[in-house]
Amino acid sequence: METVLLMLVFITATVVILYLYSAYDRNRRRLDLKRQAANRFRMQAEHRMGCLRKTNENLRRRLADIHGRLIDMELRDGNA
């Protein structure tokens, strides 16, 4: 009788340990997925920021070029 009771205790302890580990593993995977999603979002934001920076630099160059042309046109027309 003691042997059966001892086996039952060990089996119950094993089941409880496996259940707790599966809950821990589920939460760990969930956190890992959240971390991956946050990294993807950060990388996309950095990419967008780089694109906006490049567009901004190009627009500044174009604006400076147009401004220079307007000044040249005014100087040629004698309006300056």
Give a verbal description of the structure.
The chain crosses the membrane at residues 6-24. Keywords: Membrane, Transmembrane, Transmembrane helix. By secondary structure, this protein is mainly α. The protein has a domain at 41-80. The chain is built from 1 helix and no strands. The longest helix has 76 residues, at 2-77. The mean pLDDT is 94.
Summary of the model, kept short:
The chain crosses the membrane at residues 6-24. The protein is mainly alpha-helical.
The SSE order reads: H
**Count of helices?**
1
Strand tally:
0
**Structural class by sheet pairing and helices:** mainly alpha
Largest sheet: none
How large a portion of the residues is in β-strands, by DSSP E? under 5%
> Kindly, what is the distance between the CA atoms of the first and last residues, rounded to a whole number of angstroms?
111 Å
The amount of helix comes to: over 70%
Uncertain stretches: none
General shape: rod-shaped
User: What's the average pLDDT?
Assistant: 94
Q: Rg, please?
A: 34 Å
